[in-house]
Amino acid sequence: MEGLRMATVHDVAALAGVSIATVSRALREPHRVSDATRERVMSAVRATEYSPNRSAIGLRTGRTGSIALVVPDVTNPYFSALTRGAQAAARESGFGLFVVDTQESTQLERAEITSIRSHVDGVLLASARLSDDELEDLVDSPTPIVLLNRLPRPHWPVAGSVVIDESAGARLAMDHLHALGHRAIAYVGGPANAWSEVQRRRAMERAASAYPDLSLVTMRVESPDASGGRALGPAALADGPTAVVAFNDLVALGLMSDWAERGVSVPGDVSLLGHDNTFTTGLSNPHLSSIGVDPMIFGAHAIDALAEAVVRKRRMRTPGSVVSLPPTLHSRESTAQAARGGGDGGI
Question: Which of 19, 155, 170, 295 is 20 to 30 Å from 279 at the Cα level?
């Protein structure tokens, strides 16, 4: 725009060739306009650098124009990527997003959700560490809540849920490793209070049982990070597996670090497969094979469910829709043909 004048909704409407009302609907209730119209409006918004006045909008609508994303560990690359995906989707839907890090603490998680839900239009709760009983009290709120990596109980009044299809992911893992000749596999799972760990472990056991000639041993880290993986490095190899599947990429990198110090080669002695497919998969040598869902897609589905609930302006009585996203296997150098003589009592 010329000089220092800030763009207005009139400028956006003129450039997009639509009415001011249509611009407002496209930004605040995107489901009420066609994809083509919404794209024209968003292109005009970007071209004019238009920024809606959320305070003024809040006075008219009773909404803040902001949503919160609550994550257990913002330093975990998975949650960093998820934040970027949610932020991009929130921006496209006309919402501001801020992130709350609960530092893997259930007490902090409860306190933050209780404190923040009355100050935002909605809450995205990612990988909640609270138990079902504890979480049930928190989701019964006038503020819409969407769960990420967590399924609600049938009567929970949540706006929706977005999860990874763990059964599909486990089949990808077992099919991939079995095809490479691995018959003894270890699964190094996440912490006991992680809902996704319970689902992933069960899925791994079911997928492994599909192969009569395949044995699977399982164990669990204390913390879902590199230090947790390093701590279980020796135990992961105790039963002589030729392949190890890790709860996430950070745990996998911790395992790899411990093994490297003890002269165990990946994939020469043991193959290694992570989860989440974060940027860290390219930082190791060899590069880490991993299973994951694009965080941009994950974030978009979560924001769509939350935005719809915010627009409806009515309290949920039963759970909203559940979106189950199929993961993808990204095969890299850390998984290879099983080493001869492996799986017979240790490396």
Answer: 170
Domain with 18, as residue range(s), is 9-52
Do residues 148 and 298 touch, judged by C-beta distance below 8 A?
A: yes
CA atoms within 13 A on the CB side of 306: 33
pTM over 0.85: no
**H/E element, 124:** strand 122-126
- The pLDDT tens digits for 199-249 are 999 999 999 999 999 999 999 999 999 999 999 999 999 999 999 999 999
φ, ψ dihedrals at 86, nearest 5°: -70, -40
The structure tokens 């949650």 sit at 79
What's the sign of the alpha-carbon dihedral 172, 173, 179, 180? positive
Does a structural domain hold residue 342?
A: no
**Could you check whether the bond before residue 52 is cis, i.e. omega within 30 degrees of 0?**
no
* Average pLDDT value for residue range 43-69: 71
pLDDT at position 315 is 54
74/109 same-domain check = yes
How many CB atoms within 10 Å of residue 246?
30
Report how many domains make up the chain.
3
